[in-house]
Write a structure and sequence with these properties.
Length: 494
């Protein structure tokens, strides 16, 4: 440990004022950090301690009034951790024993010659540096005791000398139970070998290490921990641990969804640079990850050959970067075919509302578009509206056709482009919950549904409509809902 460069304020109490002043001169010469103030009696010394801060007290023993031991006892009553050195010409085993019993920091007998002052200066330095280090250590321990992260300190033998409450709680122990135990207590056998053979050698060589390990709780359960180790100048090891089991579980779930979906999904920087693409998108284009990651999305092979698609992707990135959802059908080029994608770009924001990521998504609707085209003639002659929508609050419409404007007063594009518009604006507010419940019950039972409810048209007219629909299932999940809605007012009048 490097010695402190802070000044050291010393109070020297001695009834021999000439000797006290001489000592002060020698101490200042021995160490320029020393600032020495003298007092001729224990009483005046206590007054000075009450009025100002000192780092060390040096006192004679044989003084009128209170002697050095009585002065020490008075100091200890008020300042229990203050360095106190008894520097006396009266040396005896009895005096030394009494001084030690009273809590003296050090004991030095006065001698003839200048060497004694060098020894005294060294004793003062050591006492003050040791006290300051201990004070800093206590301050640090108080700080880490309140930390949310688990923090512990181990000695050179790998045994705990300190654990904060968070650390003990992580492993299911009381802090006092862990102190004195070896770190192997909290690691399974397999991880214990890894720490001995890989982690600790790295810490000793580089001074620090960070990675993931598996912690063992008192009840035998394990958890994944973000683990940091660092050495101190005392040769101790400071460990910081956080339980990241939930984070790891979320990451695995995200990976499963990201890679196993039939939808094309990616991640973008806000400037449109592609960071990740899932396997579905890569396989469709016949790409390896390295072929596309790092390029702007509009320059990637899926849309680069199709000018209008490139323009749409650029616009989508710009809109999402500004915090808006973008959605539009585009054409995309695959390795062996061209596809029509229901393409969207969604912004991801941080706690301050700053856009930090963009999520592009493309659903292959080529077959659906073909199917819809085949139905267009039939749909145009139906007395109502056909639809395909997502199973979500608001019923986001993927497609509407037939007599849409006659039924609702809105153009098809108005309903398709405004997500959740049908359910949140057209379905009458008093009927929305009943519609939702009826449809969900039918979907859960994998049955068709029929229901009658009210809608509000573009001009504010309330109409009563009849709807019939059913779920479209993929891999056991509801992928969409398809159905037909017609005006039943005339029927009810009959």
């Amino acid at each position: 440990m490097q010695p402190s460069t802070e000044s050291v304020r010393v109070l020297h109490v001695d009834d021999d004022t000439s000797f006290a002043e001489l000592t002060a001169d020698f101490l200042k010469h021995a160490d320029e950090r020393f600032e020495v103030e003298t007092a001729p009696s224990a009483g005046e010394g206590l007054d000075l301690l009450a009025d100002a801060e000192f780092d060390c007290v040096v006192s004679d023993y044989d003084m009128p009034g209170r002697n050095g031991i009585e002065f020490l006892e008075a100091v200890r009553a008020e300042y229990p951790d203050h360095p106190f050195i008894l520097f006396t010409g009266k040396g005896s085993e009895e005096v030394a024993s009494d001084a030690i019993s009273a809590g003296v920091t050090d004991y030095l007998q006065k001698e003839v010659g200048a060497d004694q002052y060098a020894i005294l200066a060294n004793r003062i330095r050591n006492s003050v540096d040791r006290t300051r280090a201990e004070r800093d250590r206590r301050r640090q321990l108080r700080a880490i005791e309140t930390a949310n992260e688990g923090i512990s300190i181990l000695d050179e033998d790998g045994r705990f000398v300190y654990v904060n409450e968070s650390y003990a709680d992580l492993y299911g122990y009381d802090g006092e139970e862990m102190v004195g135990e070896h770190w192997a207590l909290i690691y399974p056998d397999g991880n214990e070998a890894r720490i001995r053979e890989d982690v600790l050698p790295t810490v000793h060589e580089e001074g620090h290490w960070r990675g993931e390990t598996t912690g063992l709780r008192a009840d035998g359960s394990t958890f994944t921990e973000d683990h940091t180790l660092a050495t101190t100048d005392r040769g101790e090891l400071v460990c910081t641990v956080r339980d990241i089991t939930d984070r790891e579980r979320r990451e695995r779930r995200f990976e499963a969804v990201f890679q196993n979906t039939h939808t094309f999904i990616g991640l973008l920087d806000p400037d449109g640079t592609l960071l990740e693409a899932n396997e579905t998108a890569l396989s469709f284009g016949g790409f390896d990850r390295e072929d596309v990651v790092g390029d702007p999305l509009w320059e990637a092979g899926w849309v680069r050959p199709i000018e209008e698609s490139r323009a749409a992707v650029r616009e989508g990135v710009q809109r999402a970067r500004e915090g808006d959802l973008f959605r539009q059908e585009i054409r995309a080029q695959g390795v062996d075919r061209e596809a029509v994608l229901d393409f969207s770009v969604r912004p991801v924001t941080d706690d301050d509302g700053e856009v930090t990521l963009l999520v592009p998504e493309g659903r292959d609707v080529t077959e659906r578009k073909r199917h819809l085209r085949r139905l267009e003639t039939l749909v145009d002659n139906l007395p109502g509206m056909v639809y395909r929508c997502e199973n979500g609050r608001g019923w986001p419409m993927e497609h509407v056709g037939g007599e849409v404007e006659r039924l609702t007063g809105y153009q098809p594009r108005d309903i398709e482009s405004r997500e959740g518009f049908y359910g949140s604006e057209i379905v009458h507010p008093d009927d929305r919950e009943e519609v939702w419940t009826t449809v969900q019950n039918a979907l859960d039972a994998r049955e068709r549904f029929e229901l009658t409810y009210r809608i509000t048209t573009a001009d504010g007219t309330t109409k009563r409509v009849w709807e019939r629909g059913q779920g479209v299932y993929e891999d056991g999940e509801v992928a969409a809902i398809e159905g037909f809605v017609t005006d039943v007012r005339d029927r009810e009048r009959q």
